[in-house]
Specification:
Helix content: 40-55%
Number of strands: 9
Structural class: alpha/beta
Largest sheet: 8 strands, mixed, barrel
Distance between the termini: 67 Å
Order of helices and strands: HHEEEHHEHHEHHEHEHHEHEH
Shape: globular
Bound molecules: ligand C2E, calcium ion
Strand content: 15-25%
């Protein structure tokens, strides 16, 4: 049949086997990367446009590979997830982000929250809470300066455990946000089940905001919803003034995106925070 013919073709698709070979090579090298301290974090500022303050920084991992150059997370996080490497990678990210945030505080900068992305596998670890507690303790960072970002899709596996874990983390004082909100398949009922402080409006709703009235309706509905649930809202992927203006009109005060800043190295964050607060 045509169907099996297509599968047959796909199986021998040379591009696909190249991808498998590439992934395998990546996996092997990624093992080394953790040991060799080749992972780095960049931090993207989150701004409250009403107060004009940077209140948060999202930690975004990169891999400085000696052979491959700077590799973005979309390239290696999926592989890390498939191979289980996401656990050591994720723990490294959590610890490094907390340590760095503590350093900024010790330098006398106005305190900000550091936001760390969590993977499904991390959330399913029975000892995640202990791991977070241990890191905060070790680093001496108060829980209110840490935020954990989870996507809808990672909540769909083992919902009960995920909900329990997130509630315990929330009770510890750690902030929880729902990343890429509106793009997953979860029901709105999740908003009742999980203890979110913040909804992060996915960049796909922001991208064409000035051309698409549909996107305005969606964001406006999210704003209404958030008020009912007493949650904060941040818009991601804000790239220009028009988007900022429209979001402002929709009462969305918190934003993140290239318009304010690309993700920054730790040294750049320092300068950014210093200059931003003088404006
Ligand atoms: P995300 O959590 O949705 O992060 C936002 C992504 O959008 C980042 O890409 C960021 O650089 C990019 N971005 C920020 N502002 C703009 C903008 O104005 N316009 C556009 N077009 N893009 C913008 P990045 O750093 O490549 O990260 C991609 C994804 O990789 C993240 O998406 C997240 O899902 C994942 N990721 C990154 N770091 C980690 C990590 O430490 N752990 C886990 N599990 N996943 C991570
Ligand atoms: Ca995120
Ligand atoms: Ca996102
Ligand atoms: Ca995303």
């Amino acid at each position: 049949t045509k169907e099996s013919g297509r599968n047959h073709y796909q199986f021998y698709n040379p591009e696909m086997s190249l991808e498998i070979a590439e992934n395998f090579a990546l996996e092997t090298q990624l093992h080394q990367a953790i040991k060799n301290e080749e992972l780095i974090l960049h931090y993207q500022p989150q701004i409250n446009i009403k107060t004009g303050q940077v209140y948060g920084l999202e930690a975004l991992v990169r891999w400085k590979s000696p052979n491959l150059g700077l590799v973005g997370p979309n390239k290696f996080i999926p592989i890390a997830e498939k191979t289980g490497l996401i656990l050591p990678v994720g723990e490294w990210v959590l610890k490094t982000a907390c340590q760095q945030n503590k350093k900024w505080q010790q330098m006398g900068l106005p305190p900000v929250r550091v936001a760390v992305n969590l993977s499904a596998q991390q959330l399913q670890q029975p000892d995640l809470i202990k791991t977070v507690e241990k890191i905060l303790d070790l680093v001496g960072l108060e829980p209110q300066w840490l935020e954990l970002e989870v996507t809808e899709s990672i909540l769909m596996k083992n919902t009960t455990l995920a909900s329990q874990t997130l509630h315990e983390l929330r009770n510890m004082g750690v902030y929880i946000s729902m990343d890429d909100f509106g793009t997953g398949y979860s029901s709105l009922g999740y908003l009742k089940k999980f203890p979110f402080d913040t909804l992060k409006i996915d960049q796909s709703f922001v991208r064409e905001l000035n051309q698409n009235p549909e996107d305005i309706s969606i964001i406006s509905a999210i704003m209404t919803l958030s008020r009912g649930f007493n949650m904060r809202v941040i818009a991601e992927g804000v790239e220009n003034q028009e988007q900022l203006n429209l979001l402002q009109q929709l009462d969305c005060e918190e934003m993140q995106g290239y318009f304010f800043s690309h993700p920054l190295t730790q040294e750049e964050v320092l300068n950014y925070l210093l200059s931003f607060n003088q404006q």
